[in-house]
Amino acid sequence: MGSTRMIVISRPDLVEKVWGPASLKNTKFIFRTSHSEGIDEIGLGTKGIVFNRNIDVWAINRRFMNIISIPPFLRESINLSNKVIDQVFEYWKTLENEGMQIDICEWLDAVGADIVSTTATGKSIASATKLFNSLDIENKKSIHGIWENGVKFIQAIHLHVESVAFMFLIPTMFRRNIPFIKDINKKYLDNKDWIYEELERIISEKQKEIENTPLSQPLESNILTLLLTTNTERDLDKISVGHFESPLTKDEVISIICEVFTSGLDTTSSSLSFIIFYLARHRDVYLKMRQEILNVYGTLNNPVLILESYGKLKYIEAVIYESIRILPTTSSIPRAATEDIEFDGFTIKADTTVHLDIFALNHNPKYFKDPETFNPDRFLTDKDSITKYAYIPFGNGVRACPGRSWAMVQMKTFLIKLVCTFDIYSNDKSDTPKYVYRAVNRPINIYINVKTRNG
Ligand code: HEM
């Protein structure tokens, strides 16, 4: 790729060598990618989690990021998702009455932005309401008390994510000197600076809020408050992340919050868009999901969603797995080794990026019978026949996705509520969703019609 050597693998036995080891001691593939000046310039090579090559700093940040997989956090997330989705479904009922189609990608981006923003910072950006108000409908909704720069911030995050491939692949000399490329480079770097300044502003505001709240009063529950209070007298023991001697620095907080946005937004909302694409074409699957909800909750009318019940939703889980198998949002995962390695008869030089081609693996008939057929049952009845390491949508080992549980909880919450509230249809009969190939694939032009369920 350009001037950078990359090795692409798509065999489970090789996947095991890279993604199998579960501890830092046993694995040589500790880095996300080979060293890149561009990634350093954009602030990711030595900070945060995803691309961080400073393993000591990565390990600390990762411990903090792990709060997004513990039950108290997931329970809060269900409550918040519930509120956001209820409001969105009220808007969809208006669209149904107006006979309007629903642009799933736009709506799920808005839902994702509202959930991630409130969970990460406690700040609402009302993306879904803004989207509703932008449609050709008379009954506009009022918006108040929101994060003024919220929408601009989300757009900046999308640009930041987009900049990673450019910064990684285009050699520094080109980025700095060639007209046009130089301008793009500047746009990406200015964008990163703006994100960091905006986060710094929000952190200062939140810090004042915390200082002005008496110790006897509980604080809001969001990731930012949690990060700012850990190892201070305000430490919320509600979500404990273990023992660290000092509070996180402002820089560390910025990097972690930034990554909650960069990693948490498109991954979940794009996966959900793909899932809904398949559901609108497989009514039998939709009805089976409805039956499962009825079996687990005893009702389809506003079932009480508690975390403990989610493990019982095996069919819904299989639907999610099958959708992200057939169309994985992250269709390629990179890792790089810290030293030279003997690998399937070759020597891979230290710091060479090895990519797992998830798409190729998930579509190989050796590992998935009739791979082009959408068949959630393969994750239920044929589950045990799936070759080990042939299916790792969230990665595996030391750098496996820390957002997996949160993403699954968000997707399940949305799907349960969707299935209980609406029937869905699509006029478009194509078998495969359209999308733009990216580090996180972006679905486009997925439209459905909804009809409120009777009874
Ligand atoms: C459907 C949704 C998602 C999918 C398919 C997904 C997939 C992945 C994959 C494949 C990796 C690479 C793992 C490896 O190298 O072994 C990863 C890493 C990561 N994911 Fe996710 N992810 C999703 C949602 C999320 C969410 C909601 C967050 C929340 C913040 C998140 C945060 C991260 C982070 C921080 C890493 C880097 C971990 C490290 O390098 O230590 N992801 N994800």
UniProtKB/TrEMBL annotation:
Signal in keyword set: no
The EC number(s) this enzyme carries: 1.14.14.14
Compartments it resides in: Membrane
Enzyme class, first EC level, given as a word: oxidoreductase
Keywords attached to this entry: Heme, Iron, Membrane, Metal-binding, Monooxygenase, Oxidoreductase
Chaperone keyword on record: no
Domain of life: Eukaryota
Stored InterPro entries: Cyt_P450 (IPR001128), Cyt_P450_CS (IPR017972), Cyt_P450_E_grp-I (IPR002401), Cyt_P450_sf (IPR036396), Cytochrome_P450_Monoox (IPR050196)
Chief location bin: membrane
Cofactor: heme
CDD domains linked to this entry: cytochrome_P450
Similarity-based family: Belongs to the cytochrome P450 family.
Name under which the protein is recorded: aromatase
Species lineage: Eukaryota, Fungi, Fungi incertae sedis, Mucoromycota, Glomeromycotina
